[in-house]
Write a structure and sequence with these properties.
Helices cover 44% and strands 18% of the residues. It has 381 residues and is of the alpha/beta class. The relative contact order is 0.12.
Length: 381
């Protein structure tokens, strides 16, 4: 019995030395994503992208010789679950960084926690309030909703459109977009004749689009990331709205086009260049990376088209990886490395971060796209 006790004590001492060594050989990365639930069209491709990237980097020896341990938590787009998982990842798993969450509402719920715990957070959500005001440890990879609105208004000017109707979902993304539209409209000569907010889970929006039609608008702007945006398009065309329909950059999933069917023809929206990668000039600095990601993802997930949303997770992991390669596995040094990253080509654009800019993209990260014959194509200039 005494020998067993001594052996157990010896093993405990050995384990105490081995555990830190084992931990030192890995980098724990948490991911809070809406893999299932109402925003699974965001979180599912994000999760699959991260799994693919981590498997690839580990097969090549890891980051700086350290294998990556990916811990994915499915928030189902719930801010409450996102907060709970964030605390678990930070306090129990002691992750190096968190990628996600998928939605703006979740990210805003987590922003203070990330800042207080000094945990790197690379959000896959778009709202400008995520990085304005700047929080030291919080970054985001999707383009700014402000820049998306500007690109839409610039396109409207080319089309001699000045009177619009606005529809937006009752989500963090919808609210942030609506605020930017209202804020920027006057300086771009745009008059908002009617503005309607709808429930993200709506299955019929005939009443809302009927109010827009009655206002006599020259164009409709719909701002959401939910499947309901396809319903907006269908209902608008069903009641006879023939004016151009503009969508936010949250329209960047071909499944929305399929859901809206023929009604989606001619829809105009700003998006990153991933959706039209094959048509880019060989001189475009993003083309090689975009084609590589598209081929790898679609080969691994047969029958599923790559989406800009998976691209947001791709960029987050890329940014984190490059920073660790540069600064080593020191969280503070990695944070500084991210903040000083310049000229990093990603799926959303070319990232140039600074202490004042934790998004690193501008309006030129967007391409104006339209739907033609059921596919995304670059809008004729």
């Amino acid at each position: 019995m005494r020998m067993f006790t001594r052996l157990a004590a010896a093993l405990t001492i050995v384990a105490a030395f081995i555990a830190p060594a084992m931990a030192a050989d890995t980098i724990k990365v948490g991911a809070i994503l809406a893999v299932t639930g109402p925003a699974s069209f965001l979180g599912a491709p994000e999760a699959r992208t991260l799994e693919m990237l981590v498997a690839d980097v580990n097969a090549k020896g890891g980051i700086g010789g350290k294998k990556v341990e990916l811990i994915i938590k499915d928030s189902q787009a719930s801010p409450e679950k996102a907060i709970s998982f964030a605390k678990q990842l930070i306090e129990e798993e002691k992750v190096f960084a968190i990628i996600g969450p998928s939605t703006s509402g979740e990210t805003m719920a987590m922003k203070n926690l990330a800042e207080e715990s000094k945990t790197l957070l690379l959000s896959c959500a778009a709202a400008e309030v995520i990085v304005k005001p700047v929080a030291k440890y919080v970054f985001k990879t999707p383009q700014m909703d402000r820049d998306a609105v500007i690109r839409i208004f610039e396109q409207m000017k080319k089309m001699n459109i000045s009177k619009i109707g606005v529809l937006s979902s009752n989500t963090g993304f919808g609210k942030a977009g609506k605020e930017q539209i209202e804020k920027l409209a006057p300086e771009h000569g745009i008059q908002i004749l009617v503005s309607e907010v709808y429930d993200k889970a709506a299955t019929d929006l005939t009443a809302e689009v009927t109010k827009v039609k009655a206002a006599g608008v020259q164009a409709v702007v719909n701002w959401s990331i939910e499947p309901a945006q396809a319903i907006v398009i269908k209902n608008a065309r069903q009641i006879g709205i023939t004016a151009p329909i503009f969508q936010s950059h949250g329209f960047g999933n071909i499944q929305y086009v399929k859901a809206a069917g023929a009604a989606a023809e001619g829809v105009i929206f700003p998006a990153g260049r991933l959706l039209v990668a094959d048509t880019l000039s060989d001189k475009n600095p993003q083309k090689s990376l975009l084609i590589s990601y598209k081929k790898a993802y679609e080969a691994k997930h047969a029958g599923e088209d790559v989406s800009t949303f998976g691209g947001h997770a791709y960029d987050a992991f890329l940014i984190l990886t490059k920073a660790i390669e540069k600064a080593g596995a020191d969280k503070e040094k990695v944070r500084t490395a991210i903040e000083t990253t310049k000229g990093l080509v990603g799926t959303a654009g070319v990232f140039n971060f600074s202490a004042e800019d934790h998004n690193g993209l501008d309006k030129n990260a967007f391409e104006m796209l339209t739907v033609k014959d059921g596919k995304f194509v670059v809008l004729d200039k």
